[in-house]
Structures are given as structure tokens and as C-alpha cells.
Amino acid sequence: MSRRRTLEDNQERAKTLIERRRSKIHGWGVFAKTQIKRSTKIINYAGEKITQKKSLPRQDKYLEKGHIWCFELNSRWVRDAGVGGNIARFINHKCKPNCWVDIEGDVIWIRAAKNIRKGEELGYDYETDGDKTIQCRCRPGCKRKL
Ligand SMILES: C[S@@+](CC[C@H](N)C(=O)[O-])C[C@H]1O[C@@H](n2cnc3c(N)ncnc32)[C@H](O)[C@@H]1O
Ligand SMILES: [Zn+2]
Q1: Is any atom of ligand 1 closer than 6 Å to the C-beta of 87?
Q2: Does position 142 have pLDDT exceeding 60, yes or no?
Q3: Ligand 1 atom closest to Cα of residue 81
Q4: What is the C-alpha separation between 37 and 5, in angstroms, rounded?
Q5: Residue 133 · residue 59 · CB < 8 Å
Q6: DSSP string of 52-100?
Q7: Half-sphere exposure of residue 43: CA atoms within 13 angstroms, side-chain side
Q8: How far, in Å, is the centroid of ligand 2 from the Cα of 14?
């Protein structure tokens, strides 16, 4: 089976696992539609693959509107979910996450860090290293900036 086919299959399966809803953390969030077992590859973070250099002006433009769409693959490459992104781009940051990021080549997998209950909001640690201008709202009283 080709890699493209595998990603398409995963995207289809993801529709049975997760859905986009309004979040108490921020705007849209992604929630479990059913119980998700620890370690499951829930969805890949889709987006145009571009160089870090090309992503910098885009990141500035996105940040003006309070968005972070660019996800670093490695020191050279970035995935920009602002172009060709999927539902994964709506997963919010959590300082105590129930998901983690597993980068396999140029595929960014969002995986379950533990058993996730139906209805739980998904979140992973963004590990941002930029200007840190966004106050984290993952839970009341969180002092971190993203
Ligand atoms: C990848 S988007 C997530 C989807 C976003 N909620 C939306 O509706 O577009 C990332 C943006 O969501 C917001 N965000 C995500 N997690 C957050 C958090 N823990 N606290 C505050 N804002 C958060 C920030 O504005 C960030 O730039
Ligand atoms: Zn937080």
C-alpha cells in the first residue's frame, strides 16, 4: 500500500475518532467522539511542506491574527496547516497533554499519550519557541505563554 493511501485511510478513520467543536480553551478544539486507546495514531497534521525560511513571513502574518499554523518538522522543514491543513490544526495546546507528537520522516502524527475518554478535548504541548505572546488558557491559572 502506498504511503499516500495510508494517510488517506487514516484521515477516514480519524473521522470516526474525533470531531471539531467549540472549546473552552480557545475557539475551535478537537474532541474524542469515542474512547481512544493510548498510543493510537489519531491523525496526521497536514499542511504544505515548506522551508523554515519561507515559513517565517507566513508565521508573522498568522500571528497577527493570533494563529499558529506552522509546525516544525525539523531544522529545515515546516508544515503550514494554513495551506492544505486538516482538522488536526484545530487541536489546542495543553500543558498537561493527552496527546503527543511523533514525527516520522515528513509525517507529523498526533498520537494518544494515554487512554482518552469520549468527549475529552485533545491537546498536545506546542513547545513553542517564538515570541511567546499568547497567554495559555489550558486550565484556570495557567501562567505559561505560548
Ligand atoms: C493550531 S490553532 C488551534 C485552533 C484554534 N483554537 C482555532 O480555533 O483556530 C492554535 C491557536 O489556538 C490558540 N490556542 C491553542 N491552545 C491555546 C491555549 N492553551 N491557550 C490559549 N490559546 C490557545 C492560539 O491562538 C493558537 O495560536
Ligand atoms: Zn497551560
Answers
A1: no
A2: yes
A3: 1
A4: 23
A5: no
A6: HHHHHHHHHHHHHTT---EEE-SSSEEEETTTT--GGGGPEE-SS-SEE
A7: 26
A8: 26
Three cell numbers written together for 136: 495559555
Structure confidence at residue 5 (pLDDT): 67
Q: What's the pLDDT band for 33 if we cut at 50, 70, 90? A: very high
User: Which mutation among 134, 137, 138 tests ligand 1's pocket best, with the greatest number of atoms within 8 A of CB?
Assistant: 134
Q: Is the CB of 107 under 6 A from ligand 1?
A: no
Per-residue pLDDT, 65: 86
**Cβ of residue 67 lying under 6 Å from some atom of ligand 1:** yes
Instruction: Say if ligand 1 is within 6 A of residue 90 CB.
Output: yes
Q: Are 90 and 29 in contact (CB under 8 A)?
A: yes
Q: 18-22, 68-72, 90-94: lowest mean pLDDT where?
A: 68-72
Q: How far is CA 97 from CA 23, 83, 119, 125, 139, in A?
A: 15, 26, 15, 6, 11
Go through the domains of the chain in sequence order and give each one's CATH number.
3-124 (2.170.270.10)
